[in-house]
């Protein structure tokens, strides 16, 4: 075998080894990319689920606040109606006391 043939074979073997190493690196780079993508999806899913859970908790809290406010409004309404009833009765008594007696008149006296 001539020097040229030996050098050519050595060059081919080196090229094959480099190509084989590049395929191995490409494989690991691809695996790394897949793992990074999966990690990104998992992180996104966790964040979305936490956000949805917090939204649900906030909705429950708001619902409780609205129920309490509704109960307070109902209580204020009841108290206001009671006060109006007292005022109404007081006005009726006042009218009874100040109304002219039968047979008498305030108009021409």
Describe the structure in brief.
By secondary structure, the chain is mainly α.
Query: Would you list the SSEs in sequence order as H and E?
Result: H
Largest sheet: none
- N-to-C terminal Cα separation, in Å? 152 Å
Oligomer: single chain
Q: Strand portion, in percent?
A: under 5%
User: How much helical structure, as a percent, in the residues?
Assistant: over 70%
User: Roughly what is the average pLDDT, rounded to an integer?
Assistant: 89
User: Could you say which structural class the secondary elements and strand pairing correspond to?
Assistant: mainly alpha
Radius of gyration: 46 Å
Q: How many H/I helical runs?
A: 1
What is the number of beta strands?
Answer: 0
Shape: rod-shaped
| Low-confidence region ranges | none
Write a structural description.
88% of the residues lie in helices and 0% in strands. The chain is mainly alpha-helical. The model has no long low-confidence stretch (mean pLDDT 89).
Layout: helices, strands, pairs:
Layout: H1 3-98
Keywords:
rod-shaped, mainly alpha, 109 residues
